[in-house]
Amino acid sequence: MVSDNNFLHIEVVYALPRTQIIKELIVPGGCTVGKAIQLSGVINQFPDIDLTKNKCGIFGKTVPLDTQLQSRDRIEIYRPLVINPKDARRIRAKNNMRA
User: Fold this and answer.
1) In this structure, are residues 46 and 55 in contact, taking their beta carbons and an 8 Å threshold?
2) Which 3 state secondary structure label does DSSP give 32?
3) How far apart are alpha carbons 86 and 91 in whole angstroms?
4) Is the separation of the CB atoms in 58 and 73 below 8 Å?
5) Between 95 and 31, whose confidence is greater?
6) Distance between CA 57 and CA 65 in Å, rounded?
7) Helices marked H in 20-84 — which ranges?
8) I want to staple 11 with a disulfide (CB 3.0 to 4.6 A). Which of 20, 68, 74, 97 is the partner?
9) E strand residue ranges, the chain
């Protein structure tokens, strides 16, 4: 592990229904969310990621790509919702009423 204050130990996380990837990285101090995602290579591995559309966050809180990182941050790349959660609940409730 790097102990120099000029470097940060971070993770980049992306999950699909059947696959998840966690990349641990050491990045220079002052690195941003967007730069760390590029350095991780996750975009090359999953070309469907579009950072102009996919939101990103740190520990579940959405942040812009120019957010500067702190050591031990976990960057999460979120997939777009397939269906609105309220609509999904309505559909499940409707199907349960029929059963």
Assistant:
1) no
2) strand
3) 9
4) yes
5) 31
6) 9
7) 33-40, 42-45
8) 74
9) 7-15, 20-28, 56-58, 61-63, 74-77
Q: Which two tokens stand for residue 53?
A: 């559309």
Contact 51, 63 (CB under 8 A): no
pTM: 0.78
* Collapsed DSSP state (helix, strand, coil) of residue 97: helix
CATH code, residues 7-98: 3.10.20.30
Look at residue 82 and tell me whether its pLDDT is greater than 80: no
Residue 42's CB: how many other CB atoms inside 10 A? 19
pLDDT-derived band at 1, boundaries 50, 70, 90: very low
pLDDT digits (tens, 9 = 90+) for 59-77: 999 999 999 999 999 999 9
Cα-to-chain-centroid distance, residue 90: 28
Asked whether the CA dihedral 72, 77, 81, 84 is positive or negative, the reply is positive
What pLDDT sits at residue 10? 98
